[in-house]
Amino acid sequence: MITPVMPTYGRWDVAVDHGEGCWLYAQDGRKFLDFTSGIAVTGLGHCHPHLVEALTRQAGRLWHSSNLFRIPGQEQLARRLVENTFADTVFFGNSGAEACELALKVARKYQHDTGHPERYRIIGCDGSFHGRTFATLAAAGNEKYLEGFGPAMDGFDHVAFGNLNEMRAAVGGETAAMIVEPVQGEGGVRPASDDYLRGLRAIADEFGLLLIFDEVQCGMGRTGKLFAYEWSGVTPDIMAVAKALGGGFPIGACLASERAAVGMVPGTHGSTFGGNPLAVAAGNAVLDVMLEPGFFDHIQGVAKRFRGRLDELVKSYPTLFAELRGSGLLLGIRCIVPAGDIVTRLRENGLLTLTAGDNVLRLLPPLIVSDAEIGQAMDILHKVAREWSA
d(Cα 330, Cα 185) in Å, to the nearest integer? Predict the structure, then answer.
């Protein structure tokens, strides 16, 4: 008999009740150190006081008005994102998949409106993840997620992640754009090299393509800068953002340069809920915190120390762990034993973690995590590793 909630998730036996900072509490009284962050969403931890205050204040004023009206908080959030990124303009939706969908539409519309309607194909990378809609599934090309939903939508080609030769060879007369995650999350916590990102920019410029970065998971401070592309100095033409942008409140955004968004005029796209007053109040509150002096310094410092301790863990248990990878506080350990089993053992000991592709144990602590909490996580990791080895 089917459950009232459609059974599309393999849920853990944890009924969540409330959260505070880096901690999540279950209804049965169990307490967990949450290094999932709602899958890179609660970047400021659970119930951050500034976010709670901002949302509560807005909830007493106005929830929804539709985008037929000017929404001052939306204009403010767009302006702040423009001031702190490559972008000249922003469209707000509700999720990462929506942000990626629009990024694909913007790329096609750009080619159409600049005299190349034949250019409609998008090149993506193996191991990528861009969402669960038909277009974003096709853009990623992952057979695991496409199974049962075929045929895959036309218009997408795929090459190996990190391989510039394959990317260049895949460019044809119908190619409109490339879409790449600067750090693949679901695909195994794999960061792109600076040289690779620079090479993508060069290919885009040479062939008249648009370069799309999907920073839904790796953006909003996760790598130690507001966005991961900043480390390489490579600027995309279009970027998809979501997850931590609202700190847990649903909001996504598609950022674009003026050049790329040339075709986006009234009537070309819309959203009923996108950028509503509650969502942008959350987004602005998140930026209030993240743009404070020292915020990214904290992330970089704690990430460096956490990475050092994880490196020692991997070296100490060579029969369990093969490789440490990632960037900032988006970290993964490629396991020799099943990563899912490690996740279960960690959860039983009070630490919440995730898996990722390539048999990777994924660690996504809140960006506000303290050294003490990192220490508690490491104690649990070592305990589980010792018991497993024994």
Answer: 8
- Give the E-state strand segments of 162-266 in sequence order: 175-180, 183-184, 190-191, 210-214, 238-241, 252-256
Taking domain 16-48+294-389, whether its CATH number is 1.10.287.1080 is answered by no
Question: Element (H or E) spanning 375, and its range?
Answer: helix 371-389
Q: How confident is the model at residue 390 (pLDDT cuts 50, 70, 90)?
A: confident
**C-alpha–C-alpha distance, residues 162 and 348, integer Å:** 36
Measured distance between the N- and C-terminal CA atoms of the chain, rounded to whole angstroms: 41
CATH code for residues 50-290: 3.40.640.10
Helix and strand numbers, DSSP H then E, in the chain = 12, 17
Q: For residues 98 and 246, what is the distance between their CA atoms, to the nearest angstrom? A: 15
pLDDT of 232 above 90 = yes
Q: Using alpha carbons, select from 247, 273, 285 the residue that is nearest to residue 73.
A: 285
What is the rounded distance in angstroms from the CA atom of residue 198 to the CA atom of residue 175? 19
Burial tier of 104 (Cβ tally within 10 Å: 0-12, 13-18, 19+)? buried
- Confidence (pTM): 0.96
- Measured CA to CA, the distance from residue 11 to residue 31 in angstroms comes to 17
Both tokens of residue 341? 């089993």
pLDDT tens track for 19-51: 999 999 999 999 999 999 999 999 999 999 999
Q: Structural domain boundaries of the chain?
A: 16-48+294-389, 50-290
Distance CA 213, CA 211 (A): 7
- Kindly give the interhelix angle for 339-348 and 371-389, rounded to the nearest 10 degrees: 120
